[in-house]
């Protein structure tokens, strides 16, 4: 028997994207009234989601696949899970595969949780007696005992993920493929899932392919990894080098310009009041995130919404800063640039690495959305004036407080 679980050779995936050709107002209106675009009114563009992908994964290895959103990670997993076919190249899978790529993967919404467990087991080629032997363990791990006979369509996304992962991990697949979907669950369940994947890989000798933005989780579970950028494998190495490569790519990406049809995000950077170097800021000090947004249209864009999401290295959202929260819409003057600055006084973040996701919309239509566009590091500071801070595992944020004593 070969010791290779997955072999990928010269793999590529091409999509054809249609764009409506620009024409007269009358032609555009007529096409919308008809409710369709004719082939002659469409321009075809080829987009390669993956190009020339080559790698091998041995049996029993846990391999992490990381990269920015849109890099091609999910497309690769869909090919390996036989959900979509490659455009070029070939791949070989030696073993039974169980995949968890999207919330509710493989579930029939009208069937109950119980019925879906048996359905999934049957699809994997298991006999009813085998599924029954695992049933109680699956339900117990998922924590949805009370709702096991309820149709899955009534489950929350978190409940679906719990049951889907439990089914995927316990029905004895030889290869377990898990995408970012675990981020939907709570932190406790994520930890539980990582422990199960570690057990499946190390103790049971099964292969795990794991995609996540949670660098701590990837490093704790995997020994090897792939870094994918723009549809190609940038690095195939031990997981420590892969994570460092990913973080370095984020730093390089911060200088890139982001554009939509009507605006451009020309600049985004961290500014520390104390001029700390290299995107460093201390706990308790004041810093700001500064953006330069250009209006590329010939009209004033009024009430533009700008939002920033700050997440930790584990992928958990810690802060959300949003002009909509204080009804402070941004006005972008025609064909000019506007500086927008979010100021955080007395930085409440505990020491660690953080990522900033940026979202900009106009009239409720998304214009620019980039996950993990910027990275910065918070180092120890004197938030409480005592020179002491809680440990990282004790807190996510710092808040001022007073103590009152009744003598």
From TrEMBL:
Entry annotated with the keyword Acetylation: no
Keywords: ATP-binding, Nucleotide-binding, Ribonucleoprotein, Ribosomal protein, Transport
Domain ABC transporter span(s) in chain numbering: 31-255
GO cellular component, one term: ribosome
Gene Ontology terms, MF aspect: ATP binding
Pfam families reported for this sequence: ABC_tran, Wzt_C
Keyword presence, Cell cycle: no
Entry-linked InterPro entries: AAA+_ATPase, ABC_transporter-like_ATP-bd, ABC_transporter-like_CS, ABC_transpr_TagH-like, Bact_Polysacc_Export_ATP-bd, P-loop_NTPase, Wzt_C
Record-stated family: Belongs to the ABC transporter superfamily.
Entry protein name: ABC transporter ATP-binding protein
Organism: Shiella aurantiaca
């Amino acid at each position: 028997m070969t010791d290779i679980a997955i072999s990928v050779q010269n793999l590529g995936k091409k999509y054809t994207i249609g764009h409506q050709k620009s024409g007269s107002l009358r032609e555009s209106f007529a096409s919308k009234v008809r409710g369709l675009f004719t082939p002659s009114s469409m321009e075809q563009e080829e987009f390669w989601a993956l190009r020339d992908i080559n790698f091998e994964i041995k049996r029993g290895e846990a391999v992490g696949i990381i990269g920015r959103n849109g890099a091609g990670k999910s497309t690769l997993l869909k090919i390996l899970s036989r959900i979509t076919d490659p455009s070029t190249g070939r791949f070989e899978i030696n073993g039974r595969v169980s995949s968890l790529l999207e919330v509710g993967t493989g579930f029939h919404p009208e069937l109950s949780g119980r019925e879906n467990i048996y359905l999934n087991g049957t699809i994997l080629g298991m006999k009813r007696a085998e599924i029954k032997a695992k049933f109680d363990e699956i339900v117990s791990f998922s924590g949805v005992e009370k709702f096991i006979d309820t149709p899955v369509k009534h489950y929350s996304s978190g409940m679906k993920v719990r049951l889907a992962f439990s089914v995927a991990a316990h029905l004895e697949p030889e290869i377990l493929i898990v995408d970012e979907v675990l981020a939907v669950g709570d932190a406790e369940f994520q930890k539980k899932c990582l422990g199960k994947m570690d057990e499946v890989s190390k103790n049971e000798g099964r292969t795990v392919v794991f995609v996540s933005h949670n660098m701590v989780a990837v490093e704790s579970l995997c020994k090897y990894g792939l870094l994918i950028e723009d549809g190609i494998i940038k690095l195939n190495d031990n997981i420590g080098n892969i994570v460092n490569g990913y973080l370095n790519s984020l730093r390089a990406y911060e200088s890139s310009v982001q554009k939509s049809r009507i605006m451009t995000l020309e600049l985004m950077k961290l500014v520390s009041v104390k001029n700390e170097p290299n995107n460093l800021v201390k706990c308790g000090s004041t810093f700001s995130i500064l953006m330069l947004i250009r209006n590329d249209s010939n009209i004033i864009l009024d009430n533009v919404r700008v939002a920033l999401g700050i997440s930790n290295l584990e992928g958990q959202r810690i802060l959300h800063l949003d002009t909509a929260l204080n009804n402070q819409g941004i006005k972008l003057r025609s064909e000019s640039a506007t500086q927008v600055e979010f100021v955080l006084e007395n930085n409440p973040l505990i020491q660690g690495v953080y990522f900033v996701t940026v979202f900009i919309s106009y009239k409720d239509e998304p214009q620019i959305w980039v996950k993990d566009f910027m990275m910065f590091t918070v180092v120890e500071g004197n938030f409480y004036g005592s020179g002491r801070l809680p440990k990282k595992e004790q807190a996510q944020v710092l808040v001022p407080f007073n103590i009152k004593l009744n003598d």
